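During the no-cost extension, the postdoctoral fellow (Dr. R.K.) reprocessed legacy sequence entries with the updated structure-token encoder. One reprocessed record is reproduced below for audit purposes.
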Amino acid sequence: MCSRVWRIDALVNQCGLHACCARPGLTGRDIGPSPFQVHVPDADAARAGPLVLPRIGQHYTPAHTPPAKIFYSYKPTQPVTHTRDQWAITAPVNAVNPPPTHKNPRYRVLIAGFGLVTPLGGSAWQTFSNLLAGKTLAGRAGNLPDDIAEIDLVRAVGAVTQVQHTATDPAIELAERAAREAAMAAGVKTDGLPAFVGTSKGAVHALTAALRSRLTNTYSPTLQAPPPPAADHAVVLGPHGYLNHHLQQRLRLGPVLHHVAACASSLTALHQARLSLLHNDVPSHSSDTRHPALALVISAEASLLPLFIHSYRRLGVLAPQTLDGYRERPLDHARKGFVLGEAGAAVLLRRVPIEDEPMPGETELLDTVTAAEAYDIIRPSPTMPALRRIADQLFADRHIDVIHPHAPGTTDHDPAELNVYADVLKRSGQTTPPDLYACKGALGHSLGAAGLSALVLACLSAKARQRPPMPWLTSPIDSPLSLKSQASPLKPSSTHAIFAAGFAGHTAGAVIKHH
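Re-encoded structure tokens follow.
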């Protein structure tokens, strides 16, 4: 291993990340749980060279790391510091990722194309058409037998049928379909495109099937199991590496950077893609500079396995697994938890000079923010400081027409989240309350892909000038914000704020404007 580069890999568990270092003599016990920030004295910066973190694909220059390059995951209760060979690795507590300052921005970022695959549709517009018609995942439960097992109920309601019969993994199929739709809509090929991938689980079907076949020394060609030649790859690469490998091979992508931040993973990837474009720092191979102003953001989740289903049920966040109870009702008094759903989402970002005003019909990605809080590995802080920090930036000096909240449908989260938005909007001076759309009530909770799915739906709503109905909203929770079950018309030019929040305090947000 090159002495100038440290490889730091991640062991991913259900609720977050823990880091371990492959350098001899330095282990995860030395570092402690991530997040971490790397510094080196100025005198050593030039000879030390960049620090490469393969677990998230991000590059850090020692002693010159801008705040926006900090990556957050599971937080310790106390700061952890370890010094080795002049390198200091520090884990900050209650830290927030501050945005870079752009006093004189040179570029703006447009959303040139998007793709979406859900249980309600094999494409973005098909899904949106069914949402406008008032369809939800709860409608699937009505066609199931009364004696269906709980695991089968969760799978039948939340699975995407088209991707279940695959030789690799459903998450790979979802991601590829969404990415191809986004690239096609933008009129570009995926060859050589730099990709920013954000998932919470990755290709867990392939990993579990491969481990089962290795542990039992048997192999049965069941659904969603990888073929024997790929089983070793699934184990060695892990769920995220296996996903990235196949996406890069199938789509002929350029460099792939993966981000894992629980349910905020996809918006975290979007944030990093936008920053790379704005800073003219899009990663590319030295011999491949075909797409210096493009970035593809991809997310997909397909983890309807007994392990995860039981885990979420034990945490008390799933809706009751009965035919009548397994339905998601975010922002409603009858909410009792969320419904697990599969999804694949993608957007193609294009950088243009700041002086190029967007044309009518184009959608601009105005801002993105990420933050984290160290309150609890599962529950957010009652005051939600990370979300408040993000809303403060996204709402500042802007009129927000529609908010797409995280709104998972759990008892504690939904009202606390809306209280943050109402308070920030009041302090920002916006007198007209924005409309709200909680898409999880129709599509379920797609975990790491939820944020990017909501952003694609925001783009569709803006283009169609229509906010879909929320038929599950029969008794809205008390809030100063507008909660309407009926569909709402939107003005020709609308601004949408999208949020995602996950376990261990991961939080991210974005603002788009349709011109």
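Residues 228-251 form the longest helix (24 residues). Confidence is low (pLDDT under 50) at residues 1-102. The remaining legacy entries will be reprocessed before the final report is submitted.
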